[in-house]
Design goal:
This protein has four domains: 2-226, 4-Layer Sandwich (Phosphatase 2c, domain 1); 229-275; 293-382; 399-478, Thrombin, subunit H (Beta Barrel), CATH 2.40.10.480. Helices cover 40% and strands 23% of the residues. The chain is an alpha+beta fold and 485 residues long. The model is unreliable at 195-227 (pLDDT under 50). A five-stranded antiparallel sheet has the order 1-10-9-6-7. A five-stranded antiparallel sheet has the order 2-3-4-5-8, with helices on one face.
Length: 485
């Protein structure tokens, strides 16, 4: 089993660029887990270079999110598309994506925007109707086309009958239909050389109820294809064949159980039945059987009474232990509340004693769980431990790779970060916006200083001074032998 992929390029509408990305993980474990990625990105930009740079950023973020997500491939794809949507809103970018993941003979597809996915099977093209993500099985020689928004507007009848047995010929044939028309696509073909069993029809299971922004025509449920029909028919036939046999076996088993039950009950009640004329039996034996049954019955009643009493005592004891333990913990907490400011050591001792008692109580009790949460809070208050929320303020990798931040200086509404990895200084505005390179790759840059007007750079040869407003650079001091080089 292997796949082939090829680009089909038509004319581009002005200001928009369609780019293609393919990625197969080099790590075997990751490839077996997540499969291979194929995607088409359509982005608005001033030039192809700008479009390529921005598209690379979007695809890299999408790919990393997909590979690092938890859960199955369909959930991971949905999570990656959510990241893509948030990123394009954050950057106010006009960009759309159509993506397919090939995992063996299973295809996972997704999109953000007006693109679409077309399945070509046996020469017939069919657009797959879905709103966000979907999955299904491919058969041998199936072609999956990821179309940008312009190609998606075309009548699909032009694709039916165009596909060839040879993949390269098929690409050329489809490409001929795009020469004078807008729109591009990525074509993926699955080839199964030795199928073990007859391949099933593609089943698309849509996760969503309705389409989102920029996604026309959302599906309201799963798309059901024809392969379920023969499967259901086969199951019905087997059920018809086996149902009479099952009924017969159950009927015989029920009859046998009734017979055995009746025989056992007759034997049990035989000593208590009235004697009929002509019955020949020993009266002493009948009396002995009755006595034995009475003794057994009384013994069972006694055993049951003892067991029930023991269980009730155990339940009562556990309840008393739980109530007593909770009361002790609550009292310790109340005392610790009073002492946490004037005698923290004693307060901590009371809380630790309460913790030991809590650990001996049932963990599934709601009141115990609430007390454990209160214990953590109380210990934090006694030990003056405060929770600090830390979040990412700025991603410096957006401006340069191999960032190694060493020093941070703040002046006004700006942060200046020394990157010793590349010898650069990155400027970040506290009010928001993307980071900017203020000083680019200064050889020998060791440290930075700052005041209201100037940024000072310590390099191997001297100290440089850069005007914060005009960015004009001048010497501020010569080098010193004490500097590290």
């Amino acid at each position: 089993m292997f796949s082939q992929a090829g680009e089909i390029k038509g004319k581009q509408r002005e200001g928009y660029f369609t780019l293609f990305f393919q990625h197969s993980p080099s790590e075997e474990n990751l490839k077996e887990l997540r499969g291979s990625l194929f995607s088409v990105l359509e982005i608005k930009a001033d030039s192809r270079e700008q479009a390529q740079t921005e598209a690379n950023q979007f695809f890299t973020g999408f790919r990393n999110t997909y590979h690092q997500a938890s859960g199955n491939n369909l959930k991971a794809l949905d999570e990656a598309l959510t990241f893509f949507e948030n990123l394009r809103k954050q950057q106010n970018a006009q960009v759309e994506i159509v993506v397919a993941v090939l995992w063996g003979s299973v295809a996972y597809i997704g999109k953000i925007g007006s693109g679409s996915v077309v399945l070509i099977r046996n020469g017939e093209a069919k657009k797959i109707d879905f709103s966000n993500v979907a999955s299904g099985a491919l058969t041998d020689k199936d072609d999956l086309l990821l179309l940008d928004s312009e190609f998606s507007k075309e009548d699909l009848d032009i694709l039916s009958g165009v596909v060839k047995q040879d993949f390269e010929e098929s690409l050329r044939a489809i490409g001929e239909t795009r020469k004078e028309k807008n729109g591009s696509a990525l074509c993926i073909r699955l080839t199964i050389q030795e199928p073990i069993e007859k391949a099933e029809t593609l089943l698309i299971a849509d996760l969503d109820k309705s389409g989102g922004e920029g996604q026309p025509g959302g599906s309201t449920g799963a798309n059901l294809f024809a392969f379920l029909a023969p499967l259901a028919s086969s199951l019905r036939q087997k059920a018809r064949d086996y149902l009479p046999k099952v009924k017969q076996v159950v009927k015989e088993a029920v009859a046998a159980a009734k017979e055995k039950s009746k025989e056992g009950l007759d034997r049990l009640l035989e000593p208590w039945k009235s004697r009929k004329p002509g019955d020949i039996d020993d009266g002493k034996i009948r009396k002995k059987k009755r006595i034995i049954q009475i003794v057994v019955l009384l013994a069972l009643i006694l055993i049951i009474s003892v067991v029930v009493g023991a269980v009730n005592r155990k339940i009562s004891q556990n309840r008393q232990n739980l109530e007593g333990g909770i009361s002790l913990v609550q009292n310790n907490f109340a005392e610790a509340e009073k002492l946490k400011e004037i005698n923290p050591a004693k307060a901590a001792e009371l809380v630790l004693e309460a913790e030991e008692k809590l650990n001996s109580l049932p963990e599934d009790n709601k009141q115990v769980l609430e007390l454990k949460n209160r214990l953590k809070q109380l210990l934090a208050e006694i030990n003056k431990i405060y929770k600090v929320e830390v979040s990412e303020f700025a991603d410096l990798t957006l401006v340069k790779g191999n960032i190694q931040s060493k020093t941070i200086r703040i002046i006004g509404d700006n942060i200046f970060v020394l990157d010793v990895g590349t010898g650069s200084v990155v400027k970040v505005n506290l009010k928001g916006g993307d980071p900017q390179v203020f000083v680019a790759e200064k050889i020998g840059l060791q440290n930075i200083g700052l005041n209201n007007k100037f940024l000072y750079l310590q390099i191997n040869e001297a100290i440089k001074r850069i005007d914060l407003a005009s960015k004009e650079e001048k010497d501020a001091a010569s080098s010193s032998p004490s500097w590290k080089k």
